[in-house]
Amino acid sequence: MRAVWLGPKGATLPFEWSYVQWAVTLAMIPAGVLIVAGIIALAGLVIIGHPPWFALPFGLIYGAPAAIYGAIRVMRGVDYNEPLRHKIATACDEFGRQSRQSAETVTHWQMPWPNLHELPDSAERQLRVDQSAGECGSTGRGAVR
Description:
Shape: elongated
Largest sheet: 2 strands, antiparallel
Strand content: under 5%
Structural class: mainly alpha
Distance between the termini: 91 Å
Number of strands: 2
């Protein structure tokens, strides 16, 4: 059974989150605020030479909701079958320094070209017989001329 916090009696939320989902979402809020405020401060430093006064308010206004949205999107795929540690390990494998090697090697298919030369006499005789039978309209095998 999942450990779920629903809220106080009579004031429950319309969704059920596990403790891990709550923890990740609440931990992402300060990170989002710092990231957005840092981007605005760096942009102001480059453009006007000093960080603008509104970097932290913009971080609070836009960073917190963006972090909540990002955490909800990340935690949407977390469930009992694929817990958060599995998602983190998969992300580390995907974006890590070690490259993955394919299980199979690439197969290069190459068809050999047939040698072009004269037909043997027996094949030419057989072709003449089949053609003469078809021209005469007979159903049996024609004789060689």
